[in-house]
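Hello Y.,

Per our agreement to keep a running log of every chain we model this quarter, I'm adding this entry. I've kept the format consistent with earlier entries: sequence first, then predicted structure.
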Amino acid sequence: MGHSRKGNTMYKLRFYFISLWLLFLLIFFITIDIPISFSKEATFIGFKELIKRNWLAVVSLLLSVIGLLMCKRLDYEWRGAVHASYKIESVENQNYEYLTFLTTYIIPLISFSLSEVRFVIVLAILLIVIGCIFVKMDLYYGNPTLALMGYRLYRVTISNHPELREIILITRDRLYAGDSIAWRSLDQHVWMAKKAGKEQTHE
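Predicted structure for the entry above:
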C-alpha cells in the first residue's frame, strides 16, 4: 500500500525518533543526579529541587518512553495487512548500516558536556539537523533500535516486479535468494517485509 508524501515523511520521522531511543536512555543515565547521604542530619531536598537538578534526565526518560511506545506500535503495524508477495532474486546483508549509525552519530553525541544548557541546545539543534538530513536522503532505515528489536536489513533484487528491481528490506526473517516476501512500503525503495508462502507469489 502506498503512502502520501506527507505520510511518508511522518513515517520516516518516526523511524528517526525510534533510532534515538538508545541516545535518550544513555543521556538519562549520564545526567541523573540523586543526592544520597547516610548522615543522621540528612534531609530530603524535596521533589521540586530534585526535578530542577534532573530536568534533562526527566526529559530524556520521557523521550525514551515515547520511543519505546513507537517501537511497540511499529511491531503492531508489522502484523497488519501486506501486499501480495514477490520473489527475491539476489540478497545482500546490510546490517552494518545499524552499526554505522551507532558509531557515527549516537556515540559521539553522548560525549557532549550536558551540564551546561548551551551544550544541550546545541545537541538539540544537531539532532534536528541530522533528522532532516536522514529523512531527505532516505537514510532513516539504518536504525540501531531496530537491530535491538531483532530486525534485519537487506538489499535485494526482485525478479517479478513490473517496475522496481533493487529494494531495501527491513524484516525479522532471515532472507535468501528464492524466498518470497509479503511487504508494505515505507517509500518507493524501502519496504517492511516478511517471508510469504509460495501460494501468494506473483508469477
